[in-house]
Amino acid sequence: MEDTVHGLREKRKRMTPQRKAILAFMKETKIHPTAQQVYAHLQTQFEKVNLSTVYNNLNALVELGCVIEMTYGDGASRFDYYRKDHEHFHAICRICERVEDFEYEPLDDLANRLHKSIGFIVEEPRLEVFGICRECKKKNDGGKYEKNSRK
Question: 56-89 pLDDT, tens per residue?
Fold first, then answer.
């Protein structure tokens, strides 16, 4: 949190109670929330909060690099707390749109290998795998996978 406060000060912004609550929620949640979901969570803590405040704060946190914005062309960005010391990747269900974190050790050293082999500097490691989650497969076994399937 200290890095975030320092980064905000450098950009002449404050760590407001709302921003602090958003950051705490992003650290704790596993759901990769949309701005609407962050807004709903904030309404439980603050009487007067609006959606534009949530968007502005999420954008500030993305700009600082402590939250990443994930867009998939469906119009609803999802957000994820980012820690450099905890690289992880995402599995996205095409049916229910659930986003789950996963770790894969062979990819942990990808940035170093890219730099050594072709001189490429990785700024934002990101791997996303699209498919069908376990729950949707159980519900749809024997049926077609409709919603966001590329098939």
Answer: 999 999 988 889 998 876 667 999 988 776 778 8
What confidence tens digit (pLDDT) does each residue in 18-50 have?
988 999 999 999 899 999 999 999 999 998 899
Hey, how many other C-beta atoms are within 10 angstroms of the C-beta on 52?
Answer: 10
